[in-house]
Amino acid sequence: MKIIQYLTELPENKEDDPGPKKSRTCKTKLKNQDGQLFNVESHSDKQLRHFKFLSVSFMSQLLSSQSFVKKIVECEEREELQKLEQRLLEEVLHYINTVASSVEGNVDKPTAKFWRVLLNKSYDMLDKVNALLPTETFIPVIRGLMTNQLPSVRRKAMDLLNNKVQQRTRWQKSQILQLLELVPELIAIVQCRRKEEEEEQAINRQTALFSLKLLCRGFGTENPVPFVPVLKTAIDLISSEKEEKNVMGSALLCIAEVTCTLKAQAIPQLPRLMPALLKTLKNKKELVSNEIYLLSAVTALLKVVRLEKIAVEFGPSSQISLRVTSLKTILATRLAPRILLPAVTKCYGEVANTRK
């Protein structure tokens, strides 16, 4: 953690260094004989970059070395270790944030390749920290990170959760209960609308909806109750007039998954869901201008009328036409005549009057 803090305090480039004063006031105590670990003044810009790269490479190797992993496994202070692991994850995510902003700031400069390589190395370090966490520790640590002040840290925590849920196939009952405790936390992120960091917020809300979708797919059949509020929240989103379209697209896909999983338990929500969904489909201008949003809406409609399997062809336009055709077939063949006939009669009357 001290190495990461020290690297964060170093200037991005040598010309950014304010001189000896900066070196003297470096808060992190990592020093050599001349009172500092790396003297920016007496080294070149290239050496500064090399020092950063070697430091991150060293940490990455240390975190996966047998002797280090052995110490982690043998450590008996589990509670203390969990706190340290969460702090280490936070430090790594903060550092990734710093490097990512350097990647953006140097995109047109000769050093662009170096910053991209350093970012990849930093992500490698994050994977090594993640690999150290047993699942019992991983879930509380992620839960802690999801309430972090930085939106980028909250998002990365959800990304780590999503990867874990997608990669693992077997979970113990206690672990599943721990994961389900994250559902209210994720709903809170979906509902959060801060004026500052608006763009970051939209991406985080989409990520949270994707997490909820994955959790529902993995554990909702056996544990439907926690996902009823998820469906209510997603319906609130698609009913809103002012909602960001990408967030609405994610909400529609979440609705599709949760409705299919909840089955009969989703029925009480249909009187709110169907008008909102049909209203979404009526707004042709917005749908046509955003193909992913259109596909999300059609997918949600298909799932709501209980289509379990959809054959997917190549290309988004063929997917849409395929799903619309499937939808027509399902409505014609699977709906009870007592439901279908009055709806068809009413619709036919309206269409005849408008000469369509």
UniProtKB/TrEMBL annotation:
GO terms for cellular component: 90S preribosome; small-subunit processome; t-UTP complex. It comes from the Eukaryota. GO terms for biological process: maturation of SSU-rRNA from tricistronic rRNA transcript (SSU-rRNA, 5.8S rRNA, LSU-rRNA); positive regulation of transcription by RNA polymerase I. Belongs to the HEATR1/UTP10 family. This is HEAT repeat-containing protein 1. Keywords: Nucleus, Ribonucleoprotein, Ribosome biogenesis, rRNA processing. PANTHER family: BAP28, HEAT REPEAT-CONTAINING PROTEIN 1. It is found in: Nucleus, Nucleolus. It holds the Pfam family HEAT_HEATR1. GO terms for molecular function: snoRNA binding. InterPro entries: ARM-like (IPR011989), ARM-type_fold (IPR016024), HEAT_Utp10/HEAT1 (IPR056473), UTP10 (IPR040191). It comes from Balaeniceps rex (Shoebill). Residues 55-131 form the Utp10/HEAT1 HEAT-repeats domain. Involved in nucleolar processing of pre-18S ribosomal RNA.
